[in-house]
Amino acid sequence: KEKTLAMIKPDGLLGNYTDEVKNVIINSGFIIFKEMILQLDEDRAASFYAEHSLKSFFPNLIKYMTSGPVLVMILEKENAVADWRALIGPTDSKKAKITHPHSIRALCGIDSEKNCVHGSDSPQSAQREISFFFQEESAE
Ligand code: ATP
């Protein structure tokens, strides 16, 4: 079965959305294969989001992602990558509340930055992100 990397971001953990998000995960047929709470430092956050390093929002993104602990999970299910992306909804939580009211970002996100959760956007990203956090795992 396919694996993907899911993350509850600092606003999600601080807002006590962990149990609610995990219930959605389980009820949607995913298995939580591994999980870990960690605090990202600036270097690790910048390396995780390296593709955005030239964007204007990058400094704020790093502040946000290092503002508290995150919960990273390896989720397993057939079609896990695409299904988890569909479940979390669009990047901008404000828009998600209108266009995808049942999405996780509509449930616990605030705006286009503080959007509560992350999901790998392709099987290649999933592989990279899973080994980024869980050295011993591969996405296969
Ligand atoms: P993620 O990669 O976290 O799952 P995503 O793929 O939906 O999110 P990206 O475009 O990859 O969105 O942006 C990465 C993260 O950067 C977003 O989740 C959000 O926290 C932040 N971000 C994106 N766009 C903006 C913006 N315009 N202003 C502030 N923060 C933003």
From TrEMBL:
ATP binds at residues 9, 57, 85, 91, 105, 115. It comes from the Eukaryota. Signal peptide: none annotated. The active site is at residue 118. Belongs to the NDK family. This is VWFA domain-containing protein. It comes from Cannabis sativa.
